[in-house]
Specification:
Order of helices and strands: EEEEEEHEEEEEH
Mean pLDDT: 93
CATH architecture: Roll
Structural class: mainly beta
Largest sheet: 9 strands, antiparallel
CATH superfamily: BH3618-like
Number of domains: 1
Low-confidence stretches: none
CATH topology: BH3618-like
Shape: globular
CATH class: Mainly Beta
Number of strands: 11
Oligomer: single chain
Strand content: 25-35%
Helix content: under 10%
């Protein structure tokens, strides 16, 4: 079966029931919203993707693969988190990070400290808060110039 869902950015889309990802504990700030779909408008495994609530236009999160931002990115998953994910094998996880895309998209950031982890075999997800020094506002794009250099260049 499939269901039509209203999305924030793409109008109405059809999502197969088996593609719905359940978050038993919700996502921080949205604990009561438990069902999401991963929408990949650029194609499978092409980022960005959208993590869209299936029951309302919001919340909707733009997500990226953290390895595309930080090549040595890794996470530790506790026993409790493995149980929530119904996880038998670590190879079955997909890790995503939430992005904030401001009007000036070149200043977009991702939250490396609080990834979304999905058991791709069972479509169960959880948001982690990692116990590390990773940034909650890691820049997606490195500026070509510092803000001071850009300001000075405008004076010429």
């Amino acid at each position: 079966m499939a269901k039509n869902i209203k999305t924030r950015d793409f109008g109405e889309v059809v999502v197969a029931d088996e593609a719905v990802i359940t978050f038993p504990e919700g996502i921080y700030g949205f604990e009561d919203i438990r069902e999401f779909a991963l929408i990949a408008p650029l194609g499978d495994n092409k980022f960005p993707m959208w993590l869209q609530s299936v029951n309302a236009e919001n919340p909707c999160f733009i997500v990226f693969d953290p390895l595309s931002v930080k090549g040595d990115y890794s996470i530790d998953i506790s026993q409790h988190e493995k149980e929530v994910l119904l996880l038998d094998d670590l190879k079955d996880i997909r890790c995503l990070v939430l992005a904030v895309i401001p009007a000036d998209y070149k200043k977009a950031t991702v939250n490396l400290k609080c990834p979304i982890v999905i058991n791709i075999k069972k479509n169960v997800g959880i948001q982690l808060i990692l116990d590390n020094d990773l940034s909650t506002r890691e820049r997606l794009f490195e500026p070509l110039f510092s803000e001071k250099e850009a300001h000075n260049a405008g004076d010429n």
